[in-house]
Amino acid sequence: MGNALTTICATSDIHSPQYLELFKKALANSTCKPDLFILAGDIVEHNNIAEYRRVLELINSVHPGIPVAAVFGNEEYVGSEKEYVVRYPNVIFLHDNYRVIDTLTGRIVAVGSRGALDKPTQWQAKNMPGLIKYFRDLPDKISSLISQAASTNLPIILVTHYGVTYRNLTGENPAIHPYLASRRMENVIVNHRNVLKAVIHGHAHNGLVESIDIDSVKVYNVALPARGRIIKVEV
To answer: Where on the tree of life does the source sit, at the highest rank (predicted)?
Structure first.
């Protein structure tokens, strides 16, 4: 059991109801048999909290009883996190913290966050004045969380919504790379390469690169509009 691979099925950016039919087809065509399902943010459009249920019902119809872990995206609005947690108690929501998760093949640790950006959007900068400092401080916080999680001696994955490097953003306009990812998060991965088993993120809808290696750590962009399918991650 201790040496068993844990199979994770991962996706993000369903923006339900916008890409719900694509998600339904992706689930139907997927060969991924998960021990854990991960939703890497922007599961609904414009904070439509009720739509989250439709996504979860689809997952449960194909993979009944499989644990689901999730981070929030920019479309799950800041300040609404508690409402998602209350409405969907069966989801393991990760919000700048880590959780030990019991999967079908054993226990792993998921560190999760919306993530950071090198630049907030103009709307974010105007309406969320504390966000610039939050983005600046977050990589250090995530690094600390990974260090704490390492004390469990369990496999660790990092899940964010925003990207963690520019190196897998081919297909996106370079002018918007700072609004898609944080380059400082790449340093977090490098510094914890000995304990991180995988990194999963979304947000880059046009990213042509499914996965890259950062110092032997596999980093996946699982955004549904980019991939068109469910991504299989084994740790």
So the answer is: Archaea
